[in-house]
Amino acid sequence: MLTLTNRQAREALVRWHNLDGADGFRGIDGARAVMDRLGTIQFDPLNVAGRNPDLVLQARVRGYRPDYLRKLLYEERHLVDGFDKEMCVYTARDFPGFAPVRAMRSADGRRWMEGRGQGEAFDMLDDILEIIKERGPSSLSDIPIGESRDFGWGPRRPSGAAIEYLFAAGRLCVADKAGTQRRFDLTERVLPADCLAPVERDRQAFEDWYVKRRLGCVGLLWDKRGGAWQGYVVGDDSARKAALKRLSDRGEIIPCRVEGQRAKFYALPQVVRAADGANRRPACRFLAPLDNLMWDRDMIQALFGFRYRWEVYTPVVKREYGYYVLPVLYGSRFVARFEPEPVGKAGCVRVKAWWWEDGVRVSATLLAAVEAALNRFARFLGVEIDAGNMDRIVSAARTRA
Prior knowledge:
Oligomer: single chain
Structural class: alpha+beta
Number of strands: 15
Radius of gyration: 22 Å
Distance between the termini: 43 Å
Number of helices: 15
Helix content: 25-40%
Largest sheet: 4 strands, mixed
Strand order of the largest sheet: 1-8-9-7
Shape: globular
């Protein structure tokens, strides 16, 4: 079995994600290339200093702008909104392959809705489809049918629940968005015909495809239950392990060991080939809280020695760091984390708080890379930079010392 050093494993991951910039991905073509490589990025509506999918792409694509994702989703239809690990954005070419996931999710949705007294939504599915067929793209609030009730999490009107069910089942697609408000249309009117043709796979073939695809979202993963193996099929230990063995036996993925780790790892062959890449000048990148690289935070802690927990939903008094904290990667090492001031409030990129990792030597070279990363981040957001950022960052180093 192939054995990787810890450094090789880290550098292979950085290389696969183009977090070193070596692929030269730029602009909308670069965003398209990243999505073709990773397949899926997680969606989250919070916008403190960019939404999660945009933050994922800006770290990998030079000159990235948030409107590129919108174009890829709602103009080119290269991407589609849908459920994978969680609610995600994924490549539209894979929409047919996700049919078993949609079937499982819609079945769970039906049980959830019926268990919460929303069963009447299923009596209006055909009516909802007919209304949208006639009206075109519609939001949940455009079709307010039925009595509104407080169900806690989820749609309050039966019509909203019906639309969500039809979306989960693949009968409706997100045609566009106004901010975070989705507008749904018939799937056959949204996606190109070549993204709708059914894929004939038996259960085992689907599991192999789905497990391999999920592995490609990160590049290298250990076979331990965690955030990267979250969701249907891949979260089932027996199904996942069986698929990993079949894929390994066929040479489609590579089983490996990482020095110092007891767990078995698996990687795509092209990721393993990147483990011996030439040394490159380290790049500094700000990662999204839900970045693909961060999906299995326990694995990241084991390989990078970086403990990260997203504290958005943690009560203020229990937070170790801050509300919306971004990891800072330099080369193949996490050197810091920081909390940005909400850009909409500050009107600029302003570092609210910065924490250096223990053992990091804060050199002039590292500070120059951080400053370059801040400039890149500000260009991505289309705002200026607060003049006091570097003073606060240098002060954080002195305080730690």
